[in-house]
Amino acid sequence: MRKILLLLLCFPLVVNGSENQAKVIINEMEELYRGTSSEVSMTMQVETPQYSRSLGMFGQTLGKERAIFRIISPKKDKGITTLRRGKEMWNFFPKINKVIKVPPSMMIGSWMGSDFTNDDLVQETKLVEEYNLELITDSETFLIILTPKEDTVSLWGQIDYLIQKDPLLPLKQSFFDDYGTKVRELVYKDPKVFGEKLLPSAMEMIPLNKPGHITKLFYNQLKFDPEGVSEKSFSLRELKKRI
Question: Does domain 14-239 have CATH number 2.50.20.10?
Answer without folding.
Answer: yes
